Model the fold of this input.
Amino acid sequence: MQLALELLAPARNMEIGTAAIDCGADAVYIAGPSFGARAAAGNPVGDIARLCDYAHTYGVRIYATLNTLLEPQEYKDAERLVRQYHDAGVDALIVQDMNLLNLDLPPMELHASTQSVIRTPERAAALEKAGFSRLILERQLSLEQIKAIRDAVNCDLEFFVHGALCVCYSGQCYLSEELTGRSANRGCCAQPCRSRYDLVDAEGRIIVRDQPLLSLKDYRLDGRIDDLVKCGVSSFKIEGRLKNASYVKNVVRHYRNVIDNFIARNPQYSKSSYGQIAGGFEPKPDATFNRGYTSAWIDGKRCGKWNSSDSAKSMGEYVGEISSVNKEGITIRLPEDVRLANGDGLSFVKGGEEVCGMRAEVVHGNQAVLKETSGLSIGMKVFRSLNLRFERELEKNMPKRLIKVGISYTTFNGETCLTATDEAGITVKLDVEEAHQKAQKCERAVETLHSQLNKVTEPFVFSLEKVEADEIYFYTASEINGWRRRLRDMLLLESRRPALNISDISAKAGAGNVKPGKDELMRMKYCLKWELGLCPKQKGKSVDEPLYLVNRNRKFCLHFDCKNCEMTVSL
Done:
């Protein structure tokens, strides 16, 4: 029996969710009107119902995010919303607040959010016992830690493979709430980790001035799918419910190719949905939003830099270096495979300052006319933050997702029947009740059956695989085309009945919400001493501790737990 692997895509709205499905997602996660942990990415339940209807055609599953921590007075509203999700066809809920388990919920699969602080086998086992059929693991885990969790539980494991990284352990960041009153666990994070800070020692000396010291690069594990599968991960999640359509299309298509290549080499695995992705754009992960990439702690050690360096913003793809500059524009030393276009967005870092960006007004080969060139110099790196040609390609050249359907045609004793079975195993039968004349040219009549049935009627690719008959009858092309369209409608009707994988949620114990220590606002694997070459293991220069992060009038103390290789930010 093949083991199914899932590519899980984010959706800010129904349109992006549909695009993710067209580009190859096996599942989509999306927020409803409330409690979705992204205040800026809510959707009406009616839109989610329409997305479910489209998704289930391909066996794609829809997961609704209900992953904020709730106030007691909100439980009834949450319970009502879950029932609406159930009626809409949602396949599973992503949950953080364990109190939801005590509500009167309809029979729905429950997934424990990464906000549920899942980074030890003990915590994972407690959540499985509480009734969760899937655990969404902490991003700052190593392969060894994932394997230990796999050995402790039987439920599905989901892991992020691409997108923005929270610097803090998921679900345990309280910096936004401390600074602004906007709680990350209530879906209103102000992202203070992307702000700029001074790093100050115990004597008040500034070690680093005005840098995004807590801003991490984006996660990227497209080269580690094999390793993750071996450790027991079956769902590969892309971050980005606030990202635009071009990001989702591009990254989903890329990971679809990566996972399909893995399956082709390992036939004991399969994808968890149906339909082949045909045609369309070629993905380029570097061409859409990213802050540079890191694999973080996946190997259980610190390799390379995690920090997003000079900027918390997206730099875009590296395209070359400035070879000359004047008042009108710049000349760029470009690789042979890079072409700029009028309107491309270019970005630069001027002397360690924040990233500056501007449009290329007019492009002639490797020369770009800019409105402003002050501060630019020879040798400065140039990044393309907006690839206009590629954006247009993403918009206009979408792939098609087509499901294979085999047709069997039979005629015995004057009764004709067409049986169609799609790759999901759904079978429908169409009885042809009209009387027809016997064909004078039997071979030609069978050829007509093949030519008119072997066609694409989206989302299906029909193929006549078997003809069995005691008599061959004559049919017009329009009649046969009508049968194909009716088979399509019948298959669509059948495929849009979601088959829910019901979890037993009766064991409501042992997985309460985790609270931090006193005054601790953040805990993380990321370590500023390592990033700056100040870690004793690096034999770098020593500094007077404690160290502090300073932003305007706020000062936060850094503590270094070297035994566990962790850093904390505290009041």
User: Anything to note?
Assistant: Confidence is low (pLDDT under 50) at residues 498-512. The longest helix spans residues 245-265.
